[in-house]
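dumping this here so i dont lose it
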């Protein structure tokens, strides 16, 4: 870090640029909010899988508790994951996300947890909207 960066209070491993309003970026060139939102997206995915497991356990026992989240994980990995085996257009990816993540919210509702279900649904919508908007902006390259 140069003396000028230290004087401005720069954080090691990040960059601020007047061109983008001084937005803090990480080493990949993405805004820090984007990286944090991607982390939240991962936690939301895990929550949806856990909700499907919990619903399956309450509804149909151990077999359904294993099959439901496993099926959701396979579909997610094939079509919606960052390194998905099959590339779908945005509408297809959003449909898969709606089915899997929305399925987690529905599972919570069906398991008798409507407040958790609504909370998960709201977080999914906000998180997915921010994630897709952030993915449309290419990372800034070093000057």
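and the seq i came up w/
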């Amino acid at each position: 870090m140069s003396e000028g960066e230290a004087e401005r209070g720069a954080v090691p491993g990040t960059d601020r640029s007047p061109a983008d309003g001084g937005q803090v970026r990480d080493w990949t060139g993405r805004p820090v909010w984007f990286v944090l939102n991607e982390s939240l997206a991962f936690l939301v995915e895990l929550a949806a899988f856990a909700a499907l497991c919990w619903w399956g356990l309450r509804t149909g026992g151990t077999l359904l508790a294993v099959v439901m989240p496993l099926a959701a994980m396979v579909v997610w990995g094939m079509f919606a994951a960052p390194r998905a085996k099959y590339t779908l257009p945005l509408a297809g990816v959003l449909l898969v996300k709606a089915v899997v993540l929305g399925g987690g919210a529905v599972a919570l509702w069906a398991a008798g947890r409507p407040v958790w279900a609504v909370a998960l649904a709201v977080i999914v919508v906000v998180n997915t909207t921010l994630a897709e908007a952030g993915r449309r902006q290419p990372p800034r390259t070093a000057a």
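Confidence is low (pLDDT under 50) at residues 4-11, 14-20.
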